């Protein structure tokens, strides 16, 4: 069963997606997502026939606030930003999800998204119909437990974000923002711009430029146009203080 599924799924993937940068379309590939890796082989096999490997390009909107979510996504090396959008079109990040979790879970058929999901760092993920995932959840087992744990972690992340906005300095919030992406990245290099960070934190770009320059002068990061390299993670964690806890 496993070998047959692996062959048929691989054959359906366009050649452009079968280069070395793409995760393998297999159980091993799916297990690059930590939530899927926590399942037993039997549970993952049951779910595997419903999983499609899809590219997640930077800037792609997976769903918007108020949408009925058709699909859920298990990122492998992509990072997805969950954002609250105001009536005037402004956006603020409330949480971030990478290979540790899933985006787009809906527990009820008529449930609508309470935020929008935008791919921030390009990569790949495994897509599944929300209705299939919902059915699997109500069947119980390890998948239901992992989804509940992930939901709890998202609430904790949201609470930390709110506390950081209320009590943290811009420098602390910047350190937390970078560390959250470092936790979900496969290297210590992050493809981000100061404008992106400023928009997500809801502060002026000049404030981010000032804080990033200070961190670079002190040897915590190295910033080149469009790329931030984390040099001293432990110092970044100390600087973030209570605004950050590891994913």
Automatic annotation (TrEMBL):
Q: Which Gene3D superfamilies does the entry link to?
A: Jelly Rolls, Winged helix-like DNA-binding domain superfamily/Winged helix DNA-binding domain
Source superkingdom: Bacteria
NADP as UniProt keyword: no
InterPro entries per the UniProt record, alphabetical: cNMP-bd_dom, cNMP-bd_dom_sf, Env_Response_Regulators, HTH_CRP, RmlC-like_jellyroll, WH-like_DNA-bd_sf, WH_DNA-bd_sf
**Ranges for the Cyclic nucleotide-binding domain?**
35-104
Q: Does the keyword DNA-binding apply?
A: yes
Query: What range(s) does the HTH crp-type domain occupy?
Result: 168-234
Give the PROSITE patterns listed for this entry.
CNMP_BINDING_3, HTH_CRP_2
For this protein, the record's SUPFAM superfamilies field holds: cAMP-binding domain-like (SSF51206), Winged helix' DNA-binding domain (SSF46785)
In Pfam terms, one family for this protein is HTH_Crp_2
What keyword terms does UniProt attach to this protein?
DNA-binding, Transcription, Transcription regulation
PANTHER family named in the record: CRP FAMILY TRANSCRIPTIONAL REGULATORY PROTEIN, HTH-TYPE TRANSCRIPTIONAL REGULATOR ARCR
Protein name from the UniProt record? Helix-turn-helix domain-containing protein
* Organism, scientific name: Duganella lactea
Lineage of producing organism: Bacteria, Pseudomonadati, Pseudomonadota, Betaproteobacteria, Burkholderiales
